[in-house]
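Page 37, continued from 36.
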């Protein structure tokens, strides 16, 4: 696998990861979309279908590439207005993902403070 392909994969993972997270948390996203993507991801990650990963790192990149392909393909079936809305919120740092991340960091800090006391 070429280095350029690996770099593109590495750049796409956080982008699509945040978008999928936001779409899954949004109650306006159709359940059939959530179910379809969940089944695709499950099929890719299940060890029964997984191609033997003989070459370290590159074998894992195959799984990452398949996951990104499944996510990109599923985006054709998600409401375009929801995708645009969540992409704008992600870019602005105000998305559901960012809100949940901030809340988790705050709760971890409070937990750490309680344990230290």
């Amino acid at each position: 696998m070429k280095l350029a392909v690996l770099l593109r994969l590495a750049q796409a993972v956080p982008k699509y990861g945040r978008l999928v997270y936001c779409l899954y948390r949004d109650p306006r996203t159709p359940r059939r979309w959530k179910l379809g993507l969940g089944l695709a991801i499950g099929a890719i990650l299940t060890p029964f279908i997984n191609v033997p990963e003989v070459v370290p790192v590159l074998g894992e990149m195959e799984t990452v590439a398949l996951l990104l392909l499944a996510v990109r393909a599923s985006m054709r079936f998600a409401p375009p207005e929801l995708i645009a809305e969540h992409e704008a919120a992600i870019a602005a740092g105000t998305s559901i993902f960012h809100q949940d991340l901030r809340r988790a960091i705050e709760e971890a800090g409070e937990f750490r403070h309680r344990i230290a006391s």
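The radius of gyration is 17 Å. Flag for discussion at group meeting. The chain has five helices and no strands.
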